[in-house]
Amino acid sequence: MKIVVLAGGLSPERNVSLSSGCKVCAALRERGHGAALVDMYLGLSGPAESLFTAPIPEELTRIGRQAPDLAAVEASRPEGGGSQFGPGVLELCALADVVFLALHGACGEDGRVQAALDLLGIPYTGAGHLGSAIAMDKDLTKRLVAPLGIATPKWELVRYTDSDVPALAARLELPCVVKPVASGSSIGVSIAHDRGALAAALTGALAFGGVCVVEQYIAGREIQVGILEDRALPSIEIVPKTGFYDYENKYQPGAAEEIVPAPIPPQWEQRLGDAALTVFRALGLSVYSRADFIVTQDGTPWFLEINTLPGMTPTSLLPQEAAAVGISYGELCERIIHASLAARRAGK
């Protein structure tokens, strides 16, 4: 097959996306496909056909400790302009059998890219545009799944400016977690146990738009569950060496212990899988995803959020879960492609 692996983009998760894209592209080539790695925002840097055999830059597989400087990325595109698609990107995608979306975050995971490709009749991997848009919005997701009997921490959506921070910091319940409403990789996320920390968290999150979910802090074990082709994969437990599972602990090798299958009783595993599938189906998702939970001492899975384009980096969780049931990385990529083509044909 002729496959365009779309990565990069203009998102705080840009570097994570490029790392995912490199690994996916290499795996697809190893399995005999023609795969081209393309930075969605910067666009084509040479003849289109040469991209299918161009070397994969090793440096792009490594993820720094900090999110990228997006202003510098914007400045590096000579053409400028407001389009999220760089020169030649859509034209190349239209020539492919399928576009593998290795994008993460608001630029690629929120349904806008999916909608654009739908309008152009270009097949792509993962969930459709509507499910992607809903899942990216943490508040809307929780509103939809809470009535279904899924335990989720109490939350409040707050829209605010700098002048609102003192009043919010004085009013909101502690301890809590401050999360930008539409971001991933724990970028902009803070845990606050006192008023000073809460004020600092709210101030810091202003950089991500000033719209946040402030969520009740639940103490427990961090366990995540992947979904592949409407079935739950084995759960994986995350144990950071320090702090919580933030951006740095997610992507720096050795920063967190990742145990798969999670060492939990079978009935806990069943509850987690059932809850993940309930969310997946309620949001109208398809192909694959990864749901994040905190599990308390009594075995209750508290749903946090669901990711429609889970990371495919060297340290990512979904490939580890797939490997636990004998699915290699390359096979996982191919299964995602074939299930996605079937979903697009079915109008999902």
Q: What gross morphology would you assign?
A: globular
Domains counted in the coordinates: how many?
3
Beta percentage is 15-25%
How much is the radius of gyration in Å?
Answer: 20 Å
Strand-pairing-aware structural class: alpha+beta
Biggest sheet details:
6 strands, antiparallel
Q: How many individual helices?
A: 12
DSSP strand tally: 13
Q: How are helices and strands ordered from N to C?
A: EHEHHEHHHEHEEHEEEEHEHEEHH
Instruction: Briefly note the CATH topology name of the largest domain.
Output: D-amino Acid Aminotransferase, Chain A, domain 1
CATH superfamily of the largest domain: ATP-grasp fold, B domain
Distance between the termini: 22 Å
Instruction: Give the integer mean of the pLDDT values.
Output: 91
So what's the CATH class of the largest domain?
Answer: Alpha Beta
Low-confidence stretches: none
> How much helicity do the residues have?
25-40%
Any idea what the CATH architecture of the largest domain is? Answer: 2-Layer Sandwich
Q: How would you characterize this protein structure?
A:
The protein has 3 domains: 123 residues, 3-Layer(aba) Sandwich (Rossmann fold), CATH 3.40.50.20; 141 residues, D-amino Acid Aminotransferase, Chain A, domain 1; 62 residues, ATP-grasp fold, A domain (Dna Ligase, domain 1), CATH 3.30.1490. The chain is 34% helix and 20% strand. It is built from 12 helices and 13 strands. The strands form 3 sheets. Strands 8, 9, 10, 11, 12 and 13 form a 6-stranded antiparallel sheet that branches. Helix 1 packs across helix 12, helix 4 runs antiparallel to helix 5 and helix 7 packs across helix 8. The model has no long low-confidence stretch (mean pLDDT 91).
